[in-house]
């Protein structure tokens, strides 16, 4: 929930309460948690359901009962390294490659997950736990399971989209991306405290309950136990919990106005929305950044920053592309718009579906209308007759984990093909194309007098993502359309960043007052392209924004302001925003991404000593992180210490040889050293790795010109212009080179 206050006292009290909850000490908060065993006496059925769930098995100590993998002296070879899994006494061990690429014995301390795969945790110095990259496939053998496999297979038959990794790769299991403390832990245990000490680069991670227990969702239960013993008339609200997860909505039949007196074939919800319940699920089932200690008593948008619908996470039509989990997809759906909740389909304790097959959907959708060949146009009980196969197509992650898209969409084969997205029809009918599927759908609909409406934002998003110069007006129209999902509107205005003009800046001011946090988030993130003073002019009325995920964005956008040149009221508001930003970045100070962001914030504030500390910490936390290395190198460049930048650039290119950014930065370094031959070589590699980037193209051409190879530079830019969308800077450089040739 988002609060608005009429005076500074209310504002101050709000933030005092918020941060008191976010920053409660370990002892005081842990004392409120009592453990799931305390719940089973009164809630026997729910407790037993939970014991069957993936939540219960989210993490466990490695024992004969919990370990599913073959540790009977089994072997697995990956990228030339043979790992061995074996027992020593009661322990489970693996002999595998360490960070130096040498075989080393490690003891498995915990299991991680249960089905369709199980991962294993290994203790490292300084309180770290790392997740082994070799995984046990827990599916039955007849389904291809009961085997070891690697998360990034070197076999093309089960490619995850990444090449096989070595010990030098940032994606090696000993690196930052497989660190349990920072990347996994908070969603696999109850009341987890990272306990990260940046000064020592070490963890003292603690939890109240090892797995995802009752209180992970409901919150600490001390007050609930006290509530049980209270008299009926004196009991607290929500049964003593900070919030209630109960869905009080009722689904009932209603009249379909378009059909006269006929009853609608779909039930409609009455009663309040269950946003608290769904935000609690979203806290883990979403692609997001944690802003502080997660707490069920605090709104999702005050503790998390949700990723919008942008590449490479989503396709242009909003279908899942990367591992985004469910919330961002579900927010796009008509189901969410109509008030459907997670617990309408899933048992919240066992996590099982409430019904099998189409019976799940016909809880609300008439079976006579929708579970019939006249609707799905497939034989009854065939693959195509099941609702989910058309409306919730699946994508496989982590090699074997098949997950369904929760945007619950109508298949639009031709439009999907046009924007480079998958479609449900040809996923099954792999021997056919999108035109065939589209023709069949249109034929079915024509027989009923209906037409297939176009997707509301797919084409506009695809045009923007492809760099089309005419995408702006449609994006702005989508952002201003209150009938569309908030996440789509926010994603539209985010994409509008390259197209901002006077009209869109005026629209930004209105969107920043939109009641939906995700619309305001997209508007804020789109403002990166505006000059600093214009940002301030637009954001000045919104410096009192109360939602934490938006406050940190405002702070980042206005970090470069000279506070002595603005009025005292705005200065005080900005100081509070800056404090919030630093608090959030420090909370995530064990990840290079947050430390890089903090370093840039301090650079904008012209606090260079603090910036250098943050950027050095980013490299210390992740020594092979390309962006951390490049950010520190660029800091040295801007502070006239290019000699210190050189080894960092070399490390960046070594860490990510297939990334253009490092080669481009190395090329610019050589330009500054006036070594144009080396510059041209590095910039050529960058253009080969990212051929569509106009900046790489014209910089490479300028380096060629410096070597006296002007004709070659002209020819290169002409070829580039023929193959890509027109770019004004490329045209400008090309015109200059042509003029030079004519002299």
TrEMBL record:
<dbReference type="Pfam" id="PF13181">
    <property type="entry name" value="TPR_8"/>
</dbReference>
<feature type="signal peptide">
    <location>
        <begin position="1"/>
        <end position="30"/>
    </location>
</feature>
<feature type="domain" description="Cytochrome c7-like">
    <location>
        <begin position="348"/>
        <end position="430"/>
    </location>
</feature>
<feature type="domain" description="Cytochrome c-552/4">
    <location>
        <begin position="38"/>
        <end position="65"/>
    </location>
</feature>
<dbReference type="InterPro" id="IPR029467">
    <property type="entry name" value="Cyt_c7-like"/>
</dbReference>
<dbReference type="InterPro" id="IPR051829">
    <property type="entry name" value="Multiheme_Cytochr_ET"/>
</dbReference>
<feature type="repeat" description="TPR">
    <location>
        <begin position="592"/>
        <end position="625"/>
    </location>
</feature>
<dbReference type="InterPro" id="IPR036280">
    <property type="entry name" value="Multihaem_cyt_sf"/>
</dbReference>
<dbReference type="InterPro" id="IPR019734">
    <property type="entry name" value="TPR_rpt"/>
</dbReference>
<protein>
    <submittedName>
        <fullName>Cytochrome C</fullName>
    </submittedName>
</protein>
<dbReference type="Pfam" id="PF12895">
    <property type="entry name" value="ANAPC3"/>
</dbReference>
<dbReference type="Pfam" id="PF14522">
    <property type="entry name" value="Cytochrome_C7"/>
</dbReference>
<dbReference type="InterPro" id="IPR023155">
    <property type="entry name" value="Cyt_c-552/4"/>
</dbReference>
<keyword id="KW-0732">Signal</keyword>
<dbReference type="GO" id="GO:0016491">
    <property type="term" value="F:oxidoreductase activity"/>
</dbReference>
<dbReference type="Pfam" id="PF13435">
    <property type="entry name" value="Cytochrome_C554"/>
</dbReference>
<keyword id="KW-0802">TPR repeat</keyword>
<dbReference type="InterPro" id="IPR011990">
    <property type="entry name" value="TPR-like_helical_dom_sf"/>
</dbReference>
<feature type="domain" description="Cytochrome c-552/4">
    <location>
        <begin position="180"/>
        <end position="219"/>
    </location>
</feature>
């Amino acid at each position: 929930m988002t609060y608005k206050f009429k005076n500074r006292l209310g504002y101050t009290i709000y933030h005092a309460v918020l941060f008191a909850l976010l920053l409660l000490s370990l002892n005081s908060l842990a004392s409120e948690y009592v453990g799931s065993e305390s719940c089973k006496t009164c809630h026997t059925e729910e407790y037993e359901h939970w014991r069957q769930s993936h939540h219960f098995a989210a993490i466990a100590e490695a024992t004969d009962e919990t370990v599913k993998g073959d540790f009977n002296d089994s072997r697995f070879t990956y990228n030339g390294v043979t790992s061995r899994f074996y027992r020593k006494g009661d322990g489970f061990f693996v002999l595998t490659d360490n960070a130096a690429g040498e075989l080393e014995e490690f003891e498995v301390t915990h299991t991680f997950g249960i089905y369709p795969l199980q991962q294993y945790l290994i203790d490292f110095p300084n309180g770290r736990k790392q997740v082994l990259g070799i995984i046990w496939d827990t599916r039955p053998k007849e389904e291809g399971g009961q085997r070891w496999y690697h998360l990034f297979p070197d076999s093309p038959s089960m490619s995850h989209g990444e090449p096989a990794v070595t010990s030098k790769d940032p994606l090696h299991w000993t690196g930052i991306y497989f660190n349990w403390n920072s990347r996994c832990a908070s969603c696999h245990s109850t009341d987890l405290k990272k306990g990260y000490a940046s000064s020592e680069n070490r963890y003292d991670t603690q939890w109240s309950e090892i797995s995802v227990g009752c209180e992970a969702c409901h919150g600490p239960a001390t007050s609930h136990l006290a509530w049980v013993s209270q008299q009926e008339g004196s009991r607290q609200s929500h049964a003593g919990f900070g919030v209630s997860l109960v869905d009080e909505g009722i689904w009932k039949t209603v009249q379909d106005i378009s059909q006269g007196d006929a009853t609608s074939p779909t039930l409609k919800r009455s009663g309040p929305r269950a946003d608290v319940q769904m935000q609690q699920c979203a806290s883990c089932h979403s692609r997001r950044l944690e802003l502080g200690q997660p707490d069920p008593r605090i709104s999702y948008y005050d503790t998390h920053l949700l990723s919008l619908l942008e590449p490479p996470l989503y396709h242009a039509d909003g279908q899942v592309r990367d591992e985004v989990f469910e919330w961002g997809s579900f927010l796009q759906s008509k189901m969410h718009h109509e008030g459907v909740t997670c617990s309408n389909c899933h048992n919240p304790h066992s996590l099982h579906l409430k019904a099998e097959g189409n019976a799940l959907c016909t809880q609300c959708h008439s079976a006579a209308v929708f579970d019939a060949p006249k609707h799905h146009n497939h034989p009854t009980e065939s693959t195509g007759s099941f609702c989910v196969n058309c409306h919730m197509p699946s994508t496989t992650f982590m090699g074997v984990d098949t997950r369904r898209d929760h945007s619950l969409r109508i298949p639009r084969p031709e439009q999907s093909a046009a924007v480079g997205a998958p479609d449900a029809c040809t996923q099954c009918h792999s021997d056919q194309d999108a035109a065939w599927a589209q023709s069949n759908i249109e034929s079915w609909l024509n027989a009923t007098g209906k037409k297939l409406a176009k997707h509301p934002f797919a084409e506009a998003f695809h045009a923007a993502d492809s760099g089309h110069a005419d995408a702006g007006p449609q994006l702005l129209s989508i952002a201003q359309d209150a009938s569309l999902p908030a996440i789509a509107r926010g994603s539209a205005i985010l994409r509008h960043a390259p197209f901002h003009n006077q009209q869109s800046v005026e629209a930004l001011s209105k969107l920043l007052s939109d009641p939906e946090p995700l619309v305001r988030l997209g508007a804020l993130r789109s403002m990166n392209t505006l000059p600093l003073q214009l940002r301030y002019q637009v954001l000045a009325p919104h410096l009192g924004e109360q939602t934490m995920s938006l406050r940190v964005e405002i702070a980042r956008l206005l970090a470069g302001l000279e506070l002595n040149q603005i009025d005292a009221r705005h200065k005080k508001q900005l100081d509070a925003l800056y404090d919030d930003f630093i608090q959030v970045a420090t909370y995530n100070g064990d990840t290079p991404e947050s430390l890089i962001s903090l370093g840039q914030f301090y650079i904008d504030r012209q606090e260079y000593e603090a910036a250098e500390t943050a950027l050095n910490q980013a490299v210390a936390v992740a020594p092979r992180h390309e962006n951390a290395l490049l950010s520190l190198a660029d800091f040295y460049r801007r502070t006239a210490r290019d000699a210190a930048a050189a080894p960092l650039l070399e490390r960046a290119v070594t860490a990510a040889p297939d990334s253009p950014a490092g080669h481009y930065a190395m090329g610019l370094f050589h330009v500054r050293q006036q070594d144009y031959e080396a510059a041209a070589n590095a910039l050529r590699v960058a253009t080969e790795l990212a051929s569509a980037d106009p900046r790489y193209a014209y910089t490479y051409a300028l380096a060629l010109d410096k070597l006296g190879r002007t004709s070659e530079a002209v020819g290169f830019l002409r070829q580039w212009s023929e193959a890509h969308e027109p770019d004004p800077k490329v045209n400008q450089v090309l015109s200059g080179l042509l003029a030079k040739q004519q002299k």
